[in-house]
Amino acid sequence: MKLSAKEKIAYGVGAVGKDMVYMLTASYILYYYQDILGVSAVFTGILLMIARVFDAANDPVMGILVAKTKTRYGKFRP
Description:
Number of domains: 2
Number of helices: 2
Strand content: under 5%
Order of helices and strands: HH
Number of strands: 0
Radius of gyration: 18 Å
Shape: flat
């Protein structure tokens, strides 16, 4: 399926908004952990990296699980 330029721009604008919210949240978490709780920057970075790696591995598994679920209530409500 070929996407038009208008559709590509629409998906791009949506991705920018999502990523801006993620970066705002991640920046606040970094500030809170380092300046308020006193956790080292290296540990905080590793913690966030582990969360992203887990998310990257978990999302396809959950997608497959949802795609294969067939109940009378729908895919998301077994």
